[in-house]
Design brief:
The protein is α/β, with parallel strands linked by helices. It is 29% helix and 13% strand. The longest helix is centred in the C-terminal third of the chain and has 20 residues.
C-alpha cells in the first residue's frame, strides 16, 4: 500500500491542474497504528490496510542493489521542439516564425538567443546552457520524438497512460509502473525510504508500491527527540520477542527507525547551489539520500507549468524560465553527487509535446511527440537518440504534431532491465513487445 503524506492532485483536460483538499480523516482509537503515527513516521499510515505495515518492512533476502532511479515528470506537456531544437530543418522556422529558437549559425540573432549546438542538426534552448557541459562530457543525452500511443491529447489520459506504463490510458491495470518494478525487483527491503516522492503528492507511477511515501523534506520522516525513547520502548515491548513474521518485521522496523534517526542531515548537505524552487529542493534532498546509503532505490519529482497555450516565449519568457530551473537543478544534482552519479539514472519525461506550429496566442497547443532527458552512469552520453520523423507536410500527424517514433516504454524498460537489473519487463510493462533501443551502456 503506497503512502501519501499530503493531499492528492487532479488534472483537468483543458490543460491545467489543481489541488483538491482531502475530504476528511476517520477518528481512530489508540492502537498500534496510533503508536506509529505518534512516532512521526508519516509512512506508517500503512496500518490503515489489513496487511500490517510491519510485514511490508520485513527483511528481504533477495539480491541487493545500489542503483537509484530518479524520475522527473514535467506536467503540462513540455514543448520538446523548443527544448531540443531541430534548427537544421527549415520547416521548423516556417511553422514557428515567432517562437522558433534561432540557429547557432544565425549571425543576425544575438548569441544569447541562439540554440546551443548538439550535433549539427539539433541544439538545446539557450536557457539550458548548464546542461551543455554534461552533454559534451558524455553524462547526458536526449531522446526526441518520444511518447505513448495515447491519441486523446488529454493531460489526464496521457499522464495516466505513462504513469501506469501503458500504451494508452484505457486498460485494467491500476498500479503504477514503478510500483510494479519495485514489487518484482531484487531489493534491500529494509529501508522505509526505498521509494520516495518529493513534493506534496504521491505520483500514480508509485501507486501500489509497498511503503512508497511522499514528503517535502527529510525532517518530515524522523522521530522527534522528545518521543523517540518512549516509542522505541513501546515497540520493543510489542514486537521485540517472538519469531513470527509480524514480530520479525517489527524488529526490522526498529532497526530502520534507528537508522533514520542516526542520519545526520547536516553532514550530507552540500555547498552546491541548487535553484530556489521546489524542484531544486527536491533534488538536493534526493542527493542527500543517495549519499547516505540508506537504501533509496526510486525517487520521483514533479515540475508543473508546461501547458504553454499562450505567451510561451522563445529564448526568454514563460517556458524559458521553466527550462532554466530544470537545467540548473539537473546540473547542480550532477555536481553534488560527483562520482556517485555512476550509480544514479535520471529520466526526465513529459506526457506529450506541443503542436508543431505556433497558435495565434503565441503559444502552442497539445501535441504528440516530445523528448526525454537521460542523465547519469547508466546511459550512453553525448547523443540525441530517436528516429527523426520530420516536420514537413505529410510527415506530421493529426492536426499538425510531431510523430512519435520511440515508445517511451522501451526506454524505461531498458533502464529497468540493464541498469536496475530487473528482467521482469513483461510484468512491469504488460503487452510491450520489448526491444531495447540501445540507449543504456
Amino acid at each position: 500500500m503506497a503512502v501519501k503524506m499530503k493531499n492528492d492532485w487532479w488534472s483537468c483536460d483543458g490543460g491545467g491542474s489543481g489541488k483538491q483538499p482531502a475530504v476528511g480523516h476517520e477518528q481512530e482509537t489508540f492502537s498500534r497504528r496510533n503508536l506509529f503515527l505518534t512516532a512521526g513516521l508519516g509512512a506508517l499510515s500503512w496500518l490503515s490496510t489489513r496487511e500490517s505495515a510491519l510485514a511490508q518492512l520485513a527483511v528481504n533476502t533477495q539480491k541487493q542493489t545500489d542503483e537509484v532511479l530518479v524520475v522527473i515528470f514535467l506536467r503540462g506537456g513540455a514543448d520538446g521542439l523548443n527544448v531540443v531544437v531541430p534548427y537544421g530543418e527549415d520547416e521548423y522556422y516556417k511553422l514557428r516564425p515567432s517562437l522558433g529558437i534561432a540557429s547557432p549559425r544565425d549571425k543576425t540573432a544575438s548569441a544569447k538567443d541562439r540554440a546551443l549546438d548538439l550535433n549539427g542538426f539539433f541544439g538545446i534552448h539557450p536557457s539550458m546552457a548548464s546542461l551543455l557541459p554534461l552533454y559534451q562530457g558524455g553524462e547526458l543525452s536526449f531522446v526526441h520524438a518520444i511518447g505513448s500511443f495515447d491519441q486523446t491529447r488529454s493531460h489526464f489520459d496521457a499522464m495516466s497512460a505513462m504513469e501506469r506504463g501503458l500504451p494508452q490510458a484505457s486498460g485494467s491495470v491500476s498500479s503504477g509502473w514503478l510500483a510494479r518494478h519495485l514489487d518484482s525487483s531484487p531489493h534491500k527491503g529494509d529501508s522505509p525510504l526505498r521509494a520516495v516522492a518529493f513534493g506534496d503528492v504521491l505520483p500514480d507511477s508509485l501507486r501500489g508500491a509497498p511503503g512508497a511515501i511522499s514528503l517535502e523534506t527529510l525532517d518530515d520522516f524522523k522521530l522527534t527527540a522528545s518521543n523517540q525513547s518512549q516509542v522505541e520502548q513501546a515497540l520493543r515491548a510489542m514486537y521485540g520477542v517472538g519469531k513470527d513474521d509480524v514480530s520479525l518485521a517489527g524488529q526490522q522496523t526498529l532497526k530502520a527507525m534507528q537508522q533514520l534517526n542516526g542520519l545526520n542531515v547536516g553532514s550530507l548537505k552540500s555547498t552546491t547551489k541548487y535553484p530556489a524552487s521546489d524542484l531544486g529542493l527536491g533534488l538536493s534532498q534526493v542527493s542527500m539520500l543517495v549519499k547516505s546509503g540508506i537504501g533509496l532505490e526510486v525517487a520521483c519529482l514533479d515540475k508543473g507549468g508546461w501547458d504553454t497555450h499562450v505567451a510561451q516565449g522563445n529564448s526568454t519568457g514563460w517556458q524559458a524560465g521553466l527550462m532554466t530551473d530544470l537545467s540548473s537543478g539537473l546540473s547542480a544534482f550532477a555536481a553534488d553527487l560527483g562520482p556517485k552519479m555512476k550509480n544514479v539514472s535520471v529520466v526526465v519525461m513529459t506526457e506529450f509535446g506541443r503542436r508543431a506550429y505556433e497558435n495565434s496566442g503565441l503559444g502552442t497547443d497539445h501535441g504528440r511527440g516530445s523528448f526525454m532527458i537521460l542523465m547519469g552512469g547508466g546511459f550512453k552520453g553525448g547523443q540525441v537518440f530517436g528516429a527523426w520523423p520530420g516536420l514537413k507536410e505529410g510527415q506530421l500527424e493529426g492536426p499538425g504534431d510531431l510523430k512519435v517514433t520511440t515508445d517511451y516504454r522501451n526506454v524505461l524498460a531498458e533502464v529497468m532491465d540493464k541498469k536496475l537489473r530487473n528482467p521482469s519487463v513483461s510484468d512491469v510493462f504488460p503487452g510491450l513487445a520489448y526491444s531495447a533501443p540501445g540507449f543504456c551502456v
